[in-house]
Amino acid sequence: MSRSCASLPSPSTAWDATSLAGALKAAAVRRSAHHVGPLHAVLVKLGLSASAILATSLAHLALRCGLPQYARDLFDEMPRPDVVSWTSLLTGHAHQGLHRESLALLRRMVGSGVEPNGHSLSGGLLACAGVSGCTCSREGNPFQGSQDEPAWSN
């Protein structure tokens, strides 16, 4: 088998959350775009699409493969995205050069009541560095202000 992660186990293979997590990670490392759809199908077939960890891993795979809309669609289907899900999505967008989209996600994250952690803020700074004229202001607590106007702006 080549390093390209040439094929998934056959449909008769007994999938579970652990094997699916491993397959998602392997495909993401190899940026294997042709595995996004089949792995998503396995996740749905097993009834694991509500798993924040697996859904976030699948969105991460989609972003690594240059499929940001697929990742956003997966994210939008999550019942209650947590800080890890938000951070994965916004940093993935920043790494893909989608800086404004990344900052918009950070704003949505704060507006939704999920408090960014250091990794989230690092992703926001990476995005800010890629946007000409971006200002990430901090006046007192960066999370003060209305839900409509978080302290982060571009």
What does this structure look like?
About 55% of the residues lie in helices and about 0% in strands. It folds into two domains: about 1-80; about 80-154, no CATH class. Mean pLDDT is about 80; it is low at about 1-5 and about 140-154. The protein starts with 16 loop residues before the first helix and ends in a 25-residue tail after the last helix. It has about 150 residues and is mainly α.
Which key terms come to mind for this protein?
disordered C terminus, disordered N terminus, mainly alpha, 154 residues
Oligomer: single chain
Tell me the major beta sheet: none
Mean pLDDT: 82
Return residue spans where pLDDT drops below 50 for at least 5 consecutive residues: 1-6, 138-154
- Give the CA-based shape: globular
Rounded to an integer, what's the Rg over CA atoms? Answer: 17 Å
What proportion of the residues is helical, as a percent range? Answer: 40-55%
Strands, count: 0
Helix-strand makeup class = mainly alpha
Please tell me the total number of domains: 2
* Number of helices, counting only DSSP H or I runs of 4 residues or more: 7
Our estimate of the beta-strand percent is under 5%
Element-by-element helix/strand order: HHHHHHH
* Cα end-to-end separation: 46 Å
